[in-house]
Amino acid sequence: AEGWEDQLEAVFDVDAFFRAFVAEVASGNWDGIWNSNNYWLYYDTSKSPARFQYFRQDLDLAFGGDTGMV
Fold this sequence. Notes:
Layout: H1 4-11, H2 14-26, E1 39-44, E2 51-56
Antiparallel strand pairs: 1-2
């Protein structure tokens, strides 16, 4: 039987998610996945197998954007 990790990877691009997550952490963006905000999922049927893709948006609070200087 497949574990939940295998089942998740069958429907969600986990590698792409972690690449975006690392960029979010490195940029200091706290207004995103940390509080379930400013992202969307897209079900990409142009690839095989079709899977959900994670996309970030609204990066105005990255790189110290909440300091009042931006």
